[in-house]
Amino acid sequence: MPKIDSSAFRELFHRLKSEMQKAIVGYDDLLTDVLVATFSGGHVLLEGVPGLGKTFLVRVLSQAVGLEPGRVQCTPDLMPADILGTHIVSEDERGHRTLRFERGPVFKNLLLVDEINRATPKTQAALLEVMQERCVTTGGERHLLPEPFLVLATQNPMEMEGTYPLPEAQLDRFMFKVKVPFPDLESLVEISRRTTGFNEQKLEGVTSGEEIIAIQHELAKMPVPDPVAHYASRLILASHPEQPDALPEIKRYVAYGASPRGLQALIRGARVWAAVHGSTAVSTEDIRDIAHQSLRHRIILNFEGEAQQIKIDDLIDKLLNQVKTPAREAA
After folding, report:
1. Among 12, 75, 124, 276, which one has the highest count of C-beta atoms within 10 angstroms of its own C-beta?
2. So what's the architecture of 222-330 in CATH?
């Protein structure tokens, strides 16, 4: 596999982002997070109220990275076979009946799962199993998904009627949870200029699936110094209320802390983040920069935390202040 030059990767990353910004107004941090997850090989949960362009973002991303998009619109009557595929009866040229597997929409490189919390737990479980195993097993046959495979799921945090919140174990399979903010005044004005006509912005493909896979493998080789790995691990442990040195707020408001998958998300995401910023090894600052995206859906509040409407991002800020970096420990 050819070695990916760090400066070439940074140029590619910024070209991708610039190309997407031709169609998407603002959302600089959001685009960065989604692209970091793409090159990390992780799935993303996008949370925001309707009308913020979450669905449009996935279409724009598929055009820019050259991946085949698929879409699942979740509803309470959606069945697992509707997304995975099913066996259908067909006739061959001799008139003999045979069973043929008709592939569902998950067999795409970039899958948009719109309003994932409207699907029933049975359908959610089928989809999220695919996210973990990257294959579909049905009728005794195993069907591999195309590579690369990335899921971007959306959910509306406001409307709870007719929804099925994702269980904690299934939330954990998303690498990042990214909040989609409401646009500011200047962005709203620019949106009105760009999107109220009939001409849609044409985007160019900047990369390909093969190149993304090559970059993912190359970035996985970026060294993570032992002090940095220890710092990330201490950050995970500090989110658990049963730890003797846990923050009072963690002990009072948190039921469960982040899992080992949270540590994996920190390391994998920090490698890409470091490469984007020109580093040749992961630092504690890279870990800190992606801590919120990696941990906000993995720290589970208890009943008191929910009743007090404690913000998980505030707890993560406190964790980042509590857990000392190697440099602070040396001082």
Report:
1. 124
2. Orthogonal Bundle (1.10)
pTM: 0.87
What are 227's two structure tokens?
């002090």
- Distance between CA atoms of 13 and 59, rounded to whole angstroms? 18
- Backbone angle region of 88, left / alpha / beta, with phi > 0 → left and psi within -120 to 50 → alpha: beta
299-330 pLDDT per residue, tens: 999 999 999 999 999 999 999 999 888 776 66
Q: Which of 180, 201, 179 is CA-nearest to residue 190?
A: 201
Continuous segment of H or E residues that includes residue 72: strand 69-73
CA angle 218, 222, 223 (to 5 degrees): 155
Domain boundaries, the chain: 25-186, 222-330
Domain 25-186 classification at class level = alpha beta
Choose among 116, 39, 34: nearest CA to 293. 34
